[in-house]
Every structure is written in C-alpha cells, then in structure tokens.
Design brief:
The protein contains 18 helices and twelve strands. It has 555 residues and is α/β, with parallel strands linked by helices. The termini are far apart. It comes from Rhizobium tubonense.
Length: 555
C-alpha cells in the first residue's frame, strides 16, 4: 500500500506541559553549536550491525524482542534519538531502557550511541542518517561544564537545522531531561526534572521505591510516555492498524522503573570533589629542550583562584610574560626561576627536582613545588602539572621570651651557616669555583633563604630593632644595622642579576659581582654576627636558669 507523504495539520500533536519554549531555545542553541568545534562524548551503538563513531563495529546491548525495519519490509517507525554527554551515560541508559520496555518495538526505533569514540569535527554519517529519521530528540542535560557537552549541542543543531526539510508523519520535537535547573539562557523554560535533593539521595532503594509508589498519570515522565504512545499509534494507522492502548497501570510501572533506574544512576555520581592541594598547569606551545633557559613568554600558567592568589594574581589564567612583569617585585624572580627550575629538570630525566620551595606573597606561607605530570603532544607543545604543597610550621612551645630568644639565636646561626661556614653553598669560594649553571642554582637558593630569614624574623616579631635590645646592647644593634642594611640590598640585587643574566659573558660578570658582594658580607658581618650569637646564648642560658614562675613573668 502506497501512502502519499503529505503533512497534515491533524497529525500535529499539542504541546505537552514539559515542552514549553524548549523548541525556541534549542533552535538557537542548535544553530550555535552546529557551527562550533566541539568535543565528542563517549558512546556505543546500541544497534547490531552498525558502526561506532570512528567506524569500528558497534557493541550490541539488550536488543531482545526487536523487529528491524528490514524484517518489517520498510514499515516506518517512530524515531527516538537519545543525546547525552559521556558523564551522563548511565542516566541516558536508564531513559533508553525505560522507553524500550514500554513502547511497541514494532513501530519504534529507539537509538542511543555509547561507543565512546572521537570522530573529528563533523557528525558521523551514521548519526546524521539516524537524526534524519528522528521524531523525538531526547537530550539529557545535567549542567556539568565538561568538554563532551559539545557533541550533544552538535546533535541538537543538526536535528533542528533540518526541521523544515524532513517530512515525518508526526511533529518532530525535542524533550530535555535535566537535573536541577536549566541553563541560564533557558530560564523560564520547562523540561522533565530528574534531579533529587539531599534527603532523597540518602534513601536506600526500598525507601525510594516506596516514595515513587504514588507516581500516577500526571507525572511528567508518564505524560512523556503518553506522548510516545500517541505518536506510535500514528504510525500504526499508516498501515491500517488500530491503536495500541496502554493502561494507566502500565504507564505507572514504566514511569516508576525509569525513576528507579535514574535514582540508582544518580547515587553513583560524585556529590562533590575536593582537591586539598593547590595546583597550577603551565602550558607551553613551543618545543622545549634541556638547553632551554627560560619559559617562552607565550606560555600560559593557569589554576583556580585560590592557587593563583598565592602569587597575588586575580585571574585564573595568565601569560608567562605578564606573570613575570606584574608579580610582586620582591618575589617574582624567585617564583619565576623556581617554577622554571622544576619544569626544566623534568625534560631530560624521569624524576623532576621536587626540592624547590617558594614563599607566597600574601601570607608568607611556604610551599613546596612538586611536578606531578608532564605531557608532550605530537605538535611539540607541552603541559606541566605542578602541585604547591604547603609546608607546615611547628608550634611555639615554652614561655614567650625563651621562645623569642631561641628563634633569634636560630636566625643568627642560619645567617652564619650561610656565609661563614667553609662548606656552605653560599660562601664566596663556592660561587667563585662553580659553573654558571651552578651559580644560578645557588643564587636562586640564596634568594630563597634570605626570604625565609625575613619571613621568620617577621613571624617571631624580631623585625623591630628595639626587640633586640632585650638581648644585647644598643651599640651592637646600631653597628649591625648600619653595616648590614646596604649589604643586604646589594646582595639581593646581585643574586637577581645572576638569575637574569643572558649568555656566558653577561653571566660571568654577574657571577663576579655576586662573589664580590658576598666577600664584603663575610668581611663586615663575621665579628658582629658572632658577638650577637654570644649575647643571645648568654640570654637563653640566663632565662632557662630562672625558676619557672620567674621565667614566665619575665615574658
């Protein structure tokens, strides 16, 4: 029997309550995404004999009781296409299996793709062909911002683009299943909400079954199934078959089955995910080698707001050259050189140098920089994933004065170990005999140690010269201040110049200048530093020899 394909007004179904203005919204959304470069979601063809999105044979999933088009001799069927993102596959399968179990399989073609393969920036021909035969496009939308949503948008775009060019016996339409809220641009539109609140998610299966036992024909999913039943009967009429009527009890059980499977799928999803460690990603478009001295300015450093705030940056992504230019003058060179040190150490060996440490600009917290992943792409670009692990500070014990004396003694001793010990990496002789590469590493470490001294002095409330008068005499304090302040400024400048020096000639000049200023520190600060250590040692012993009550009162 041949039937003329003429669109009749009588075949147009009234809009259901859950459709609302979805058609207008997805027309706009579809046109936008149909031209975009998206990312494919995972999937597997649910139909035997078909191929996946990369052309590979598809997997067959629960197709019992299905009568194919070929077996029916070309009888038309109601086409239902389920579009979803990879992270929503279990939700999509719950809807797919529920529809399949409820409708007349002789007159419905329910299609879902779960092959999970990328196929480029154009829809696979099989999917395009299937969309042309689709009457109801079901979109599963959870609102999660993931790359795979691009594919859902492309499917919607293709479906809506050919809306007026493809004849189907029933009105083609789009139905959306969403979690808690529609996209912001779709405010005011209606769909089928499948999200559950915290109380519902905490129920066990038996209690949830009892909760959905009251579902009736007015439920949104029941109305959706009624819509499908009505459309199926249109196709039955085309070959002179009577309506197939479903009872309310059938729909109620099918709706409950879909809701239960959605509940099970939602319970396996993440409620939230916490990453306690701070992380940055350095993306480099250029091909780096072990001979590279610094990151290209076009490299991008990105991280969440909390992580980027360590560097005083409000943005979540910044070009490397802008980071170096705008970061705190006090810390930017040490930040730059430390991150580059970790990155470059991973280029020619399996293990990176994870001993590097930085000081945050805002709170003076100390973070160890650890490279956890290095990715190199075929085009030569690279990604470096670095965690910033906060170093814990020991709690102060004892009375306040004893603690302060001990911290002051520790600061003075550390300074002595840096410059006056023969085996120290920072003594002038070590810099003089070291290579340029070694000197750069030592200059970086020197700047870091000087920042640690400054930070620890501030935290111990020892940054005020008047505090030191409690441990020694004023002449010693005045002499130290006059001598060391200008030397400290010149020492830090020389270390910075060592880090930024280009080439061997400029590097040798910076090295010689750094050696010279360290020698001046060694000459000028040796005796004053030793005098202060003796005074602090005497003060500590005197304070420890006092009775506990006296020592506490003295604080």
């Amino acid at each position: 029997m041949q039937i003329r394909k003429v669109r009749k007004k009588s075949s147009k179904l009234p809009q259901l309550p859950y459709e609302g203005k979805l058609l207008a919204f997805y027309t706009t959304l579809g046109k936008l995404f149909s031209r975009s470069i998206g990312y494919w979601r995972k999937g597997v063809s649910m139909k035997p004999g078909r191929t996946g999105r990369n052309g590979s044979p598809a997997k067959s999933v629960e197709l019992t009781g299905r009568i194919t088009t070929d077996e029916l001799g070309g009888v038309e069927k109601l086409g239902i296409f389920i579009s979803y993102a990879s992270e929503d596959m279990q939700l999509a399968l719950a809807i797919y299996n529920g529809i399949k179990a409820h409708v007349d399989s002789d007159f419905t073609d329910v299609w879902i793709d779960v092959e999970g393969m990328k196929s480029g920036f154009d829809l696979n021909s099989q999917i395009r062909d299937q969309l042309k035969k689709t009457d109801i496009l079901v979109v599963v939308y959870t609102g999660q911002e993931k790359e795979s949503h691009g594919f859902t948008g492309l499917e919607v775009g293709y479906f809506m683009r050919d809306q007026d060019e493809i004849y189907r016996p029933v009105e083609r339409r789009l139905v959306v299943f969403y979690l808690d809220k529609m996209p912001m641009v779709a405010a005011g539109l209606k769909g089928i909400r499948i999200g559950l609140d915290k109380a519902e998610m905490s129920l066990d299966e038996a209690k949830y079954r009892k909760k959905i036992d009251t579902v009736d024909d007015d439920h949104a999913i029941s109305l959706f199934l009624q819509d499908i039943e009505t459309s199926v009967n249109v196709f039955r009429h085309r070959i002179a078959l009577p309506d197939r009527n479903h009872s309310k009890e059938d729909r109620r059980l099918s709706s409950q089955g879909i809701l239960l499977n959605l509940f099970k799928a939602l319970q396996t999803r993440k409620d939230f995910e916490v990453s306690p460690q701070r992380k940055i990603v350095v993306s480099v478009a250029d091909d780096l080698t072990g001979l590279s001295e610094e990151l290209p300015g076009t490299s991008v450093m990105s991280g969440d707001q909390a992580t980027m705030s360590i560097f005083g940056i409000g943005e979540t992504s910044v070009f490397w050259e802008n980071f170096v230019e705008n970061a705190s003058a006090q810390f930017k060179l040490i930040w730059k050189s430390t991150i580059e040190k970790v990155v470059f150490s991973s280029l020619d060996q399996l293990e990176a140098d994870n001993s590097q440490i930085i000081v945050s600009g805002a709170h003076q917290d100390v973070y160890r920089v650890i490279l956890t992943k290095r990715i190199r792409y075929n085009n030569g670009s690279s990604e470096f994933h670095l965690y910033l692990v906060k170093v814990l500070k020991p709690n102060s014990l004892g009375n306040e004065r004893t603690t302060r004396i001990l911290k002051a003694l520790g600061l003075c001793s550390r300074f002595r170990f840096m410059f006056f010990e023969k085996a120290s990496d920072f003594c002038s002789s070590m810099f003089e005999i070291g290579s340029l590469s070694q000197c750069r590493d030592s200059a970086r470490a020197l700047m870091r140690e000087l920042e640690f001294l400054s930070r620890d002095s501030f935290e111990a409330k020892l940054n005020d010269a008047g505090v030191w008068a409690d441990f020694t005499d004023w002449p010693t304090i005045i002499e130290l201040t006059k001598v060391y302040r200008p030397l400290d400024k010149r020492l830090k400048a020389a270390a910075q110049n060592m880090l930024v020096a280009k080439g061997d000639e400029e590097g040798e000049k910076a090295k010689a200048a750094l050696v010279e200023i360290i020698r001046q520190v060694e000459s000028a600060m040796d005796q004053p530093n030793m005098t202060l250590i003796r005074a602090l040692s005497a003060a500590l012993i005197a304070n420890l020899q006092k009775p506990p009550s006296v020592a506490v009162d003295a604080g």
